[in-house]
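Incident log entry.

Two folding requests arrived from the same account within the same minute. Monitoring flagged them as a possible duplicate submission, but the sequences differ. Recording both here for audit purposes.

Request one:
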Amino acid sequence: MPLLQHPDVELRYTAALQFRDIDPQAFRTTLTALSSVGGEVGANAARMLAAPPLAMPVPIAPLPADHPIFWPARHPPPAGMARDEIERRISALIPDQPRRLLQLLRPAMGLWPQAPRDDAPPHGSRLGGMPHAPPGWTWPVEATEPMLFIGQINCADICHLPGAEVLPSSGVLAFFGDHDTVNGCMFSSMGGAVYHWPDTSQLAPAVPPMLPLTVFPRAELLFRPLLQLPDPKSRLVESILKDDRAFAAYEEFYSALESHGLPEGYDYAGDFGAMLGWPRLVQNDDWDFLLDRPSDDYRLLLQLPSYTNGEEFADWGPGGTLYYFIPEEGLEQQDWQSCELAGQFT
């Protein structure tokens, strides 16, 4: 709202357009004043004042409560596929390359969003809502806007899982993202922040410098141990499997690995996040124009596709996945400031 009084007439005009639906009076008052300034801004303001009102959007009917997309939020997480079964099936399906593929197995901690709970502790693992932070902590900003709170992981919730030995054994890892990056408006590694707060006893509600543009639906998190292989679209898999038959077999097995433990025919196996492991790709495996360094220098720290808490949804941009990457040496030194945020969108 302060931008409606900004001395720059172009900025004032752009701000006024955002109020066309939410405050028509502010929209018309601002454009009426701008229509007399002359030039392109004055002409555009007069044209917008004369335009017919926008048609009211047709509300989208909510999904029924028994829709299968809500199944995970109402059930405990299933176990991932066991290593011996992975080895047996890979050896049978792709007998020419089993050893090389099995060497790529990585442990991951699968995220399992649940319904929000009033009794959940402020330091608990969750997505969305508003963060609790240590005293004196400063909310991260990008281009003067407060970053959006994505979620937090209590390291004590995952320290017993395979692969977690590279992460802190206690404290909270908190994830933030710039509004434009999270919504797919910019393609760069700018606009993300990760913090580790070791002392969870001092966490208190964090106050942003201004109200964030978006607060995502809150979902508590459970976890499940997983073993992951690279996405079939990855350059690594394409470099190993040159035969079309072997590649098709790998795609089929990858789908079975991702959906293991889910109801038969469940169509949302790709809608689960994970820590560590391999990126589940929305587009392709070309990260070099998104990250500051060659992609081989990084480990995946967190990936988060759209999620639901059983009633509400959170989507990234037009539908996609957020990826927090950290350089290998940054992970070894637990230098969370070295993390970079990237996204892939449909």
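Request two (distinct sequence, not a duplicate):
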Amino acid sequence: MKPYDVLFEHALTRIDAERIHHAAFRAIRGAEPVTSRAVRVPSRPVHAMGLTFPHPLGLAAGFDKNAVGIDGLAALGFGHVEVGTVTGEAQPGNPQPRLFRLKADHAIVNRMGFNNDGAEVVARRLAGWRAGGGSTLLGVNIGKTKVVPEEDAARDYEKSAGLLAPYADYLVVNVSSPNTPGLRDLQAVEKLEPLLAAVRRRADEVSPERRVPLLVKIAPDLSDDDVLAVADLALASGLDGIIATNTTTSREGLASDAADVGRIGAGGLSGRPLTQRSEDVVRLLRSRVGSDLTLVGVGGITTVDDARRRLEAGADLLQGYTAFVYEGPLWPRRIVRGLESADGRR
């Protein structure tokens, strides 16, 4: 058993998951000067969306909601960091407790509810980070403010895009979290098309000298037909990519005790239970879009084999979050080194 496994099993899991998240994140930020010197991650460059990523693996949105630890996270070995989800207005998120572990499934259930400082504050923070030399490849994930009605959603997303696009290497429109009422309804093509057009237009207005790549993040719970409809829309709308997938509302096939799952209640499930569906969605998307779009595979990537299979299914880039929690701070480096070793054997 690895030292981190012992720590996780006998100490970290005995404390509320959200408290541990904040404590661990403070430690990562505090250790940044040390880790930036100590961690050396192999280079496996990926050219996508007009950008050059040092290797395929990045950190998914949700860990650094407010863009406060980008460099510390990159120092651990992530080739890109996606911050957010950021909403047009600051909001506290859902009542606590709202983050839970399902250890038997190597999974997490969250119903955080887009708790974040809001686009204006995050934009000021990113401006300072860029001015100070911040160069980590940065994705900014934007979502809808909870109190904003659906008919005003495009305007809310536009506000975030206008404030954040100048500092982002790419933007992600998140319409797939299950924790904001009605948000997933925006994945319907007739609602998604005008929303994406509004975000694209606003990003171009505030960053005329540089076209900021735009992606959409979709749920694993979409039917195959709906996945293909989003793929067709992405192609027709000139999107740069799709992130597949967000968390699931399904609880099928879990190893965890049903009573424990029931006590946790609603929320998005991430981790190993998503592995197969997320891989299948990537494969389905690639069959539809060919080489025209960048696909980011996320959901249930824990091992080097998981990462390799997701790339073989058609992903250009990978992201993780739940495995980072369960496997510890050396996990990104292990995955990237494992992929490089696999390349060398071929």
